[in-house]
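Meet my pick.
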Amino acid sequence: MTQSSATPNELAKAIRSIGSADFIPAVLDYMRTVTPFRGAFVTLLSPGRLPEHIYDNVRQERRSVVVDRWLDRAWLLDPFVVTFISDRFDPIMVLDDVAPDRFAQTDYFNIYYKSVRLKDELAVFVPLSDSTLFFSLGRLVGEMRFSRRDVRRLLEAHQVVSALCEQHFHRSPRNAPNQLSGAMRLDTVIEKLCNGLTRREIEIVQHLLRGHSSQSIALLLDLSPATVKVHRKNIYRKLGISSQSALFSIFLQSVI
């Protein structure tokens, strides 16, 4: 199916589905005519509020880990969400745009990418009146990574996708997601789970969990790499652990 023959049909289907339960799948089908992808996970992001699940095509046997745990608290480590919260996001971004230097070595990567054979991820952010739709689109192992050409093509279609989504959510208003309490901030979660850490050590734990190396953390916090390594040793000693995987396990205790 070529883009020239498929796009008008899929676009017409998306327009007809505005205001119905078929809208998000129809918009995704239209986006697939622009650039192919397999996985899709759609959430609504609002400053100061919890992410709201809109749609996903995750297999049932993986939902408890990939969807439920992510919505519970693992989204705090999602590099795209971190970028959104920091207000540094572009309409279309690929994983390489946002992932820290050691992201592929993290347990988060193993759970949310490697275990489901996800090779690459592309984010489409669609601003609405008081929130932003976050389309997470995935390609699997054995498929090509998203290219800059894919990004350009989706950028060209972004205005159409935005107009469709604005019309749909205007006709189908949603209740506001729950407020994001202080207990759901990553630094607060770490402080609760890792008693006895200093504020600087909590900062470093946040960056470690998100996949930053000691060198990357040093640049972010304006410290020397040697100082960061000393902090890491102190963190591990205080928590009675010896690896970053053990640190991630402590974090997961808060989402099980």
Remarks:
- The longest strand covers residues 118-127.
- The mean pLDDT is 89.
- The chain has twelve helices and five strands.
